[in-house]
Design goal:
Blueprint lengths: L3 E9 L2 E2 L8 H7 E4 L1 H7 L5 H10 L4 E10 L3 E2 L3 H17 L5 E6 L11 H12 L6 E5 L9 H4 L2 E4 L8 H18 L4 E6 L15 H15 L3 E7 L13 E6 L2 H18 L10 H9 L7 E4 L15 H9 L4 E7 L1 H10 L4 E6 L11 E11 L2 E3 L9 E3 L3 E6 L2 E6 L9 H4 L10 E4 L6 H4 L5 E4 L33 E4 L2
Parallel strand pairs: 1-4, 1-6, 2-5, 6-7, 7-8, 12-20, 12-21, 13-19, 13-20
Antiparallel strand pairs: 3-4, 9-11, 9-22, 10-11, 14-15, 15-18, 16-17, 18-19
Helix pairs in contact: 3-7, 4-5, 8-9, 10-11
The structure holds zinc ion (ZN).
The site of zinc ion (ZN) has 4 residues, from loops.
Protein name: M81 family metallopeptidase
Organism: Virgibacillus byunsanensis
InterPro entries: MlrC, MlrC_C, MlrC_N
Length: about 500
């Protein structure tokens, strides 16, 4: 008989509370809502957190993997109570039916919000804790954009956050969480954690880890992990500013085997974050400035206009028309726009088929607050089911379903329309339908930073555009009601932080 029975789960969503859309159970079903062996089939061999869990556990002969429930939806509006209760019911039910478990590995996000629960990750961990024995080891992975609730560390000290943005270390952190669980089970090691929360709300535009302040902070974190034997994980959570909840904000979470050292590192990092905070503020060009720059751009590789305010991975609806409308007017030679989420236009193209000419009213369907729909005459070039596999390096091997796709041409511009909102994080999104992005002079995409992991070598320049949208870089445009106040940069405050320990 196997010695250790380890449960594996995934519960993941980044919720934009200002979004007009709600995230329902069908949004989870579209992305991933899996039970039992389907989990292993879906994630084994992928560079995801769960892929990392599985790889480590499979190295140990004495481990039996107990797949529980995996539920993930792409970032969008607040999760409905109904969807949360459905997933909670499945997950807790599966744990209760699984017999005696020896540990649980669960991939969480940290910025999920449910209609009546501001911190569902903590709520779910609490439910899990109640369903298992009090000292059962539980380890999580968390997203760099998590708004981490202080109670999380009280439920388990083992948390491993991403250290990259774009998040290309999901697998690595999953791997590390699983290794730590095995170390704990085999050697009975005791772990401690301290969470330091700062009254700081940072825009995410400059949280990239290739350069800038987040790079310096994560480099420091990595060097401490490598050099201090008492420290297992140091994570800086930039936070997600579009969740209007009491837990919103930046934090540092330290995991280790010596409480005193863990506290010291936590305090050290709050100081660093406080000193670096100004460097996260970034001024962006207007739509007109960006379009003018794109028109005059001459390069060997394309220039990318990033419509960051409508990045679906930051909760954008994927259908705003601010930038699109100016680009259609400018009719820029050899340009590409994508993906635009528009089910109605997609359906017209599907019905008329490739080779037809159609009249469309593009975008602006979710809310005209960020631009009205644009009337265009378009040529339908190609229509697909919208299914392809990512080539990475982020989410390598993961099957993507855009819910249908069409490639249309409007004047000199190629436009990709999809049946759901999603960021162009992998060139396969365009290539699967026959569009080669590297052949374009100008590419406009609804992206923020994740796309860089696969587009960096394909493009010459990126311009982040200050267009209207739900994921605007300017935090002063949001009507916050629930975040803790005072908070920087909305208020003027002195250095302060709150420390919560696991024990
Ligand atoms: Zn993230």
């Amino acid at each position: 008989m196997k010695k250790y029975r380890i449960g594996v789960a995934f519960f993941y969503h980044e919720s934009h509370t200002f979004s007009p859309s709600k995230t329902t159970i069908s949004d989870f079903e579209k992305e991933a809502y899996l039970k039992g062996n389907d989990i292993l089939e879906h994630y084994q061999g992928t560079k995801t957190e769960v892929g990392g869990f599985i790889d480590v556990l499979n190295q140990h002969d004495q481990v039996e993997i107990i797949p529980l429930v995996c539920a993930a939806a792409i970032p969008s509006g607040t999760v409905t109570d109904e969807a949360y209760q459905d997933i909670r019911h499945q997950l807790i039910g599966t744990i209760e039916q699984s017999g005696e478990l020896d540990a649980i590995l669960i991939a969480l996000h940290g910025a999920m919000v449910v209609e009546s629960i501001s911190d569902p990750e903590t709520a779910m961990l609490k439910e899990i804790r109640q369903a298992v024995r009090n000292d059962l080891p539980i380890a999580t992975t968390l997203d760099l954009h998590g708004n981490i609730g202080a109670e999380m560390v009280k439920l388990t000290p083992l948390h491993f956050g991403f250290k990259t943005y774009p998040h290309v270390d999901m697998y690595e952190q999953g791997y590390k969480a699983a290794e730590t669980i095995m170390e704990l089970l085999i050697n009975q090691t005791t772990y401690y954690a301290s969470l330091a929360k700062l009254p700081v709300l940072l825009p995410s535009i400059n949280m990239r880890t290739a350069e800038g302040p987040m790079r310096e902070l994560t480099e420091k974190a990595k060097s401490i992990e490598e050099s201090d034997i008492n420290i297992s994980a140091v994570t800086i959570f930039g936070g997600f500013p579009y969740s209007d909840i009491p837990e919103a904000g930046t934090s540092a979470l330290i995991v280790g085997t010596n409480q005193r050292v863990v506290d010291r590192v936590a305090e050290e990092f709050t100081q660093y974050i406080w000193e670096y905070k100004e460097k996260f503020i970034y001024h962006l060009p207007t739509i007109d400035e960006a379009v003018q720059e794109a028109i005059s751009f001459r390069g060997k590789k394309p220039i990318v206009l990033a419509d960051i305010s409508d990045n679906p991975l930051s909760g954008g609806t994927g259908d705003t028309t601010g930038l699109l409308s100016k680009m259609v007017d400018a009719n820029i030679d050899n340009s590409l726009f994508g993906a635009l989420y528009d089910e109605e236009s997609l359906q017209i193209c599907q019905e008329n088929g490739a080779g037809s000419t159609v009249q469309l009213s593009l975008g602006g369907k979710w809310s005209s607050e960020f631009g009205e729909p644009i009337g265009v005459k378009a040529e339908v070039i190609h229509v697909t089911t919208g299914k392809f596999r990512n080539k990475g390096p982020m989410n390598t091997g993961v099957l993507v379903n855009t819910n249908g796709a069409t490639h249309i041409r409007v004047g000199n511009m190629d436009i990709l329309i999809t049946g759901r909102a999603l960021s162009a994080n992998d060139p396969e999104l365009f290539r699967h339908i026959g569009i080669e992005p590297t052949e374009k002079n100008v590419i406009a995409m609804k992206v923020k930073n994740h796309f860089r992991s696969s587009f960096e070598d394909l493009m010459e320049r990126v311009l982040y555009v200050d267009a209207p949208g739900l994921a605007s870089n300017d935090l002063t445009v949001f009507d916050f009601r629930h975040i803790p106040r005072p908070i920087w940069p909305l208020d003027n405050i002195d250095y302060d932080f709150e420390l919560t320990r696991s024990k």
